[in-house]
Amino acid sequence: MSNTDMNMRGKIIFYEERNFQGRHYECMSDCADMSSYMSRCHSCRVESGCFMVYDRPNYMGNQYFMRRGEYADYMSMFGWSGGIRSCRMIPMYRGSYRMRIYERENFGGMMHECMDDCDNFMDRYRMSNCMSCHVMDGHWLMYEQPHYRGRMMYLWPGEYRSFRDMGYGGMRFMSMRRIMDSWY
Question: Which residues pair with 26 in a beta bridge?
């Protein structure tokens, strides 16, 4: 497999112990439940591509974006106690980016169309909350705090009518950024 093919596919290696010790599991695609491969995961290394990792099976719970690099003790870095339980590979995307964000569920209230990163919804759009969105183009990360901080959610093309129904009822999303091909 060429280096270009590897970058397009992505590869992440999970380790049972901190500092890349113990049994490991290599993953080059989505994995809905890692418990059949390892009992726990305390460190990982992203060799190529970008991934979202989740603290619950089936891509549920808290999410964290990972790109190429080493995460020797990610649990203290993220503040997680249970470890990674599932992961999703983010496909490389080259093209335009377009998303509509809405103040209320079911595409209600104030709407803004976005084509670039926004570090603060309140400052740019005078919007104190974002509760639904429609991603037309590209892959995005949405953050609960301004300036790309706090918990995050991965979004790809599709309609997201209710963040509350998706399990984000107590969160207010306040910033977003595009997942760019230069991150791979």
Answer: 13
80 secondary structure, DSSP code: -
Percentage of residues in the chain with pLDDT exceeding 70? 91
Per-residue pLDDT tens digits for 34-83: 998 988 888 999 999 999 999 899 999 889 999 999 999 876 666 666 67
Task: Assign 3-class secondary structure to 85-134.
Answer: CEEEEECCCCCCCEEEEEEEHHHEEEEEEECCCECCHHHHHCCCCCCEEE
Contact at 8 Å (CB) between 133 and 126? no
- Per DSSP, 20 falls in state G
Among residues 127, 81, 90, the alpha carbon closest in space to that of 108 is found at: 127
Q: What's the sign of the alpha-carbon dihedral 146, 148, 149, 154?
A: positive
Name the pTM for this structure. 0.88
Closest CA to 132 of 108, 155, 149: 108
Burial readout 84-96 (b: 16 or more C-beta within 10 A, e: otherwise)? bbbbbbbebbeee
Per DSSP (E only), the strands in the chain are 11-17, 21-27, 43-56, 60-71, 86-90, 98-104, 108-114, 132-137, 140-145, 149-155, 158-160, 175-178
